């Protein structure tokens, strides 16, 4: 889809060389012949330092916000950072106008909610895609992303590809970092979802107040048409009360009272592989079965269902579609062993997520509940003893191990986690993650559940500066085969 340079920039320049343009690039290393290099301020340095490299690699045009250049291929627009969201959208021919967009923010549940929105849309004959932690594209064929929410320039390219693939709906995770850094500038969502707010990313935001304020940025008339808010979350209730948008509340039945539009659950009964519950709304009530583990997944599914209602779908049709929902890769994903115990892989890497995972699995567990987890290095150290305390409180046996230690010593991280636990508690430290998992599995008995938390869908482990290939789900499948032989 080449773009005519003169037509695209007619309002800003008349003397640029005539050429056809292919892609907008923020990284000079990715520039190919015919691309536009955007030499703009970055987190650590300014892109103008890489203009020569981009031109050498075939850039047909460079846009930057400062400097003086004789080369007519370099266009200086002092107001470029204000213009760029609109420029990126026009370059890719306004793809968002051809799509229904659902934006999802919150500490936990973003990926799951996005996947459930996409799955429901597919069940309702809509071609759908996701953008988020697990990648972008159809759920069955994701392309990896370096960040949960890409830069708005990359988002426009991804949305353009979605339109070309005849996609009709895109569910996008919107991180707090992205909101502060305005990575969704130029977008307008048909629905925005708030899942919850618990401790995370304080190394970036500094305080829970600032973290919450970042999340709230998504719920404005400039970015969204309607708000879908978890009112069983304390911050969610504040957000709903202050919202300038129409609110669709979801959560526990007692918390949804007083809202004009809501989707609520009550009378929850855990089964071996899911939940039976009473689903109520402002229009009807249903006896509802959800084939997923984890009570938080009930809330994630309600968020997805509410989003579909905002988009105009009939509730009875949406309820029927929920019977076909599948677990999200690495999110409460079950692995059944011949010895009649179950391992569950989950991405839980925050105190709240770990606590919720363990509390939910306790309801499905007939025997002992095991927990294998660690904490990432070079990140919020304050949560380590707290996660140790919660693991000890909610699990019968805990094995502390590596997560992504990065530049820190693995054993030191494990000891900081153990500092929140009783000195004589039922825990073991095994720094090697695969050995820790295997230790839990060979120790488990019939009816036990082993939660392996922290890595989820990830396929690398960061040790020092090395990114090692490590797919926890593949490793569990390997152990299922080995232990069944």
Automatic annotation (TrEMBL):
Give the protein's cofactors.
Mg(2+)
Question: Which residues are involved in binding ATP?
Answer: 106-112
Location relative to the cell:
Cytoplasm
So what EC number does this one have?
A: 6.3.2.13
Modification N6-carboxylysine, positions: 215
Q: Where is the Mur ligase C-terminal domain?
A: 330-456
Database matches in Pfam families = Mur_ligase, Mur_ligase_C, Mur_ligase_M
- Specify whether Transmembrane helix is a keyword of the entry: no
Query: So where does UDP-N-acetyl-alpha-D-muramoyl-L-alanyl-D-glutamate get bound?
Result: 26, 28, 147-149, 175, 181, 183
- Recorded catalytic activity of this chain's protein: UDP-N-acetyl-alpha-D-muramoyl-L-alanyl-D-glutamate + meso-2,6-diaminopimelate + ATP = UDP-N-acetyl-alpha-D-muramoyl-L-alanyl-gamma-D-glutamyl-meso-2,6-diaminopimelate + ADP + phosphate + H(+)
List, for all copies, the residue spans of the domain called Mur ligase central.
Answer: 104-306
How is the polypeptide modified once translated?
Answer: Carboxylation is probably crucial for Mg(2+) binding and, consequently, for the gamma-phosphate positioning of ATP.
Q: Where does meso-2,6-diaminopimelate bind?
A: 379, 403-406, 454, 458
Instruction: Print the keywords alphabetically.
Output: ATP-binding, Cell cycle, Cell division, Cell shape, Cell wall biogenesis/degradation, Cytoplasm, Ligase, Magnesium, Nucleotide-binding, Peptidoglycan synthesis
Occurrences of domain Mur ligase N-terminal catalytic (ranges): 23-70
| GO MF annotations, alphabetized | ligase activity
- List the PANTHER family hit by this protein, alphabetically: MUR LIGASE FAMILY MEMBER (PTHR23135), UDP-N-ACETYLMURAMOYL-L-ALANYL-D-GLUTAMATE--2,6-DIAMINOPIMELATE LIGASE MURE HOMOLOG, CHLOROPLASTIC (PTHR23135:SF4)
Family, per entry: Belongs to the MurCDEF family. MurE subfamily.
NCBIfam families named among the record's database cross-references: murE (TIGR01085), PRK00139.1-2 (NF001124), PRK00139.1-4 (NF001126)
**Annotated function:** Catalyzes the addition of meso-diaminopimelic acid to the nucleotide precursor UDP-N-acetylmuramoyl-L-alanyl-D-glutamate (UMAG) in the biosynthesis of bacterial cell-wall peptidoglycan.
Name under which the protein is recorded: UDP-N-acetylmuramoyl-L-alanyl-D-glutamate--2,6-diaminopimelate ligase
Give the source species. Rheinheimera aquimaris
Q: Which gene encodes it?
A: murE
């Amino acid at each position: 889809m080449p773009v005519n340079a003169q037509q695209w920039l007619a309002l800003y320049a008349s003397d640029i060389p005539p050429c056809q343009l292919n892609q907008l690039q923020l990284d000079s290393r990715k520039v190919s012949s015919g691309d536009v290099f955007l030499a703009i301020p970055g987190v650590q340095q300014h892109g103008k330092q890489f203009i020569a490299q981009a031109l050498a690699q075939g850039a047909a045009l460079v846009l930057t916000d400062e400097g003086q250049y004789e080369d007519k291929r370099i266009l200086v627009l002092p107001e470029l950072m204000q213009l760029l969201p609109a420029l990126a959208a026009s370059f890719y021919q306004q793809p968002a106008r051809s799509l229904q967009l659902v934006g999802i923010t919150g500490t936990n549940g973003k990926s799951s909610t996005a996947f459930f929105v996409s799955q429901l849309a597919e069940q309702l004959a809509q071609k759908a895609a996701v953008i988020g932690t697990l990648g972008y594209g159809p759920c069955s064929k994701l392309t990896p992303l370096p960040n949960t929410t890409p830069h708005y320039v990359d988002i426009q390219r991804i949305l353009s590809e979605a339109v070309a693939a005849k996609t009709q709906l895109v569910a996008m995770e919107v991180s707090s970092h992205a909101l502060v850094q305005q990575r969704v500038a130029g977008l307008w969502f048909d629905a925005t979802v708030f899942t919850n707010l618990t401790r995370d990313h304080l190394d970036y935001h500094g305080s829970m107040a600032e973290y919450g304020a970042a999340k709230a940025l998504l719920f404005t008339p400039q970015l969204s048409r309607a708000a879908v808010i978890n009112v069983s979350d304390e911050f969610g209730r504040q957000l709903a009360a202050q919202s300038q948008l129409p609110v669709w509340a979801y959560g526990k039945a007692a918390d949804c009272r007083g809202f004009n539009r809501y989707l609520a659950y009550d009378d929850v009964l855990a089964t071996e592989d899911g939940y039976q519950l009473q689903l109520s709304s402002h229009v009807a009530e249903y006896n509802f079965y959800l084939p997923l583990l984890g009570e938080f997944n009930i809330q994630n599914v309600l968020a997805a269902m509410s989003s579909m209602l905002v988009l105009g779908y009939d509730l009875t049709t949406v309820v029927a579609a929920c019977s076909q929902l599948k677990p999200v890769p690495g999110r409460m994903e079950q692995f059944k062993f011949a010895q009649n115990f179950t391992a569950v892989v989950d991405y839980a890497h925050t105190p709240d997520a770990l606590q919720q995972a363990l509390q939910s699995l306790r309801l499905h567990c007939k025997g002992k509940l095991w927990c294998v987890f660690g904490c990432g290095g070079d990140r919020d150290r304050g949560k380590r003893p707290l996660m140790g305390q919660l693991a000890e409180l909610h699990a019968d046996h805990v094995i502390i191990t590596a997560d992504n230690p990065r530049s820190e010593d693995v054993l030191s991280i494990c000891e900081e986690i153990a500092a929140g636990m009783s000195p004589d508690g039922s825990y073991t430290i095994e720094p090697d993650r695969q050995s820790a998992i295997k230790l839990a599995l060979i120790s488990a008995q019939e009816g036990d559940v082993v939660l392996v938390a922290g890595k989820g869908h990830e396929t690398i482990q960061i040790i020092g500066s090395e990114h090692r290939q490590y797919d926890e789900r593949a490793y569990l499948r390997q152990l299922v085969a080995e232990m069944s032989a």
